[in-house]
Structures
1.
Amino acid sequence: MTTRALLVTSSILGVNGQSNALANHFETKTEAHDVVVTHRDVVANALPHLAIEELGAWQTPANERNADQQALAAHSDELLAELRASDVLVLAVPLYNLGIPSQLKAWFDRVLRAGETFRYTENGPQGLLEGKRAIILAARGGQYAGTELDSQTPHLKAMLGLMGISDVDVVFAEGLNMGDAQRDAALKEAFQAIDQLVETL
């Protein structure tokens, strides 16, 4: 049975980005498995910050949108279609100033849509994408996992959880700017963890 994976990369460093190295390893590893990967690079295909005009386009019934609203809504609709079509969401994420890249936040702003990926109920928000799986490939120059400075991991898990995605694996590659030996060891360990996860897809 074919597994469909949506791989979202967000490093501004291109081929030099360590999170992109993790993403490339994942994509290469899947070639020997029955996995179809759709790659969305939110830096190469950057989205603007969310503005009221785009929000208004979503809130306008599709058959009542003008041409500008149709074009604005198309950005989110395309991303939502990619996400819905996937079984596994893979996020390759660098750590910028203790948070996620703004380009990735712009992506989340367009897939976290009330009525599309979650809904409000009397008991709070309910995710509408239950049954999907997520893998976070986290590359960091320092060592933050398990400390108070790692606000990125809970933020990502919270946004995924809002959509109903609670089956989340995280692969950390940390200390990448703390010397060649530390970098090489961290990447080797991360690559091995990715190999094991791909076997479970």
2.
Amino acid sequence: MIGRLSGILLEKNPPQVLVDCNGVGYEVDVPMSTFYNLPHTGEKVTLFIHYVVREDAHLLFGFGTHGDRAVFRQLIKITGIGARMALSILSGMTVAELAQAITLQEAGRLVKVPGIGKKTAERLLLELKGKLGADIGVVGGAPRDDAQADVLNALLALGYSDKEALIATKNMPAGTSVSDGIKLALKALSKA
């Protein structure tokens, strides 16, 4: 119903902000990653909204990017993860860090987020694998250039796991050609 709000930022009280849209003030809960990137009060702001209707409340959750909102929506689909918990996860780590933790299956990074125990972290890793971490070329590993992304894809095509491919390309020098990158990555993988 409400997908985006644009207006003047009136108040900032973590984790909630008040946005004036033509005389109507909307209270919006935002993750801390979005909160830290907000402009000063009195300035124009645009937030991508996830609207939740419950029996006892209508809630707005705001995000600085489409990507953050998409990850939030993936998180709340998981059994036992509500909107508040999803907001806590996105406040405790960036989307890129979350994607990398899922790709590398690192439950320890998720347990550091307040409210996430070992079982919940393992469920997150299991249910988000292939949904969030699969796009490691863009989000999880954040290759520095096209050559590194090509090397990563080549390793995946050769049958290496996401984790192995990401680790092998992690320390690849910038500006390395694709063929040299594959050689370096295979050499690194043979030592492991």
